């Protein structure tokens, strides 16, 4: 995944969102968190749980997540 400014499609309090394409051709949005803290980790976990439980035609589906602390 290329985290360059050309692929950046949004940003928020906890990090930036980037556009990407998977090897199968699927277009994805990837949120990359920055400055993680214990509170930030809890927020991330909560967001994953909520997004994974929601299904709607106008919302993107969660394809996966990673908690690695290094690139």
TrEMBL record:
Top-level division of the source organism's lineage: Eukaryota
Any Pfam family the entry gives: PK_Tyr_Ser-Thr
Record flagged with keyword Transferase: no
SUPFAM superfamilies for the chain: Protein kinase-like (PK-like)
Binding site for ATP: 31
Protein kinase domain residues: 3-71
Keywords: ATP-binding, Nucleotide-binding
GO molecular-function terms, A-Z: ATP binding; protein kinase activity
UniProt xrefs under InterPro entries: Kinase-like_dom_sf, Prot_kinase_dom, Protein_kinase_ATP_BS, Ser-Thr/Tyr_kinase_cat_dom
PANTHER family referenced in this protein's UniProt entry, alphabetically: PROMASTIGOTE SURFACE ANTIGEN PROTEIN PSA, RKF3
Protein name, as recorded: Protein kinase domain-containing protein
Organism: Vitis vinifera (Grape)
Highest classification ranks of the organism: Eukaryota, Viridiplantae, Streptophyta, Embryophyta, Tracheophyta
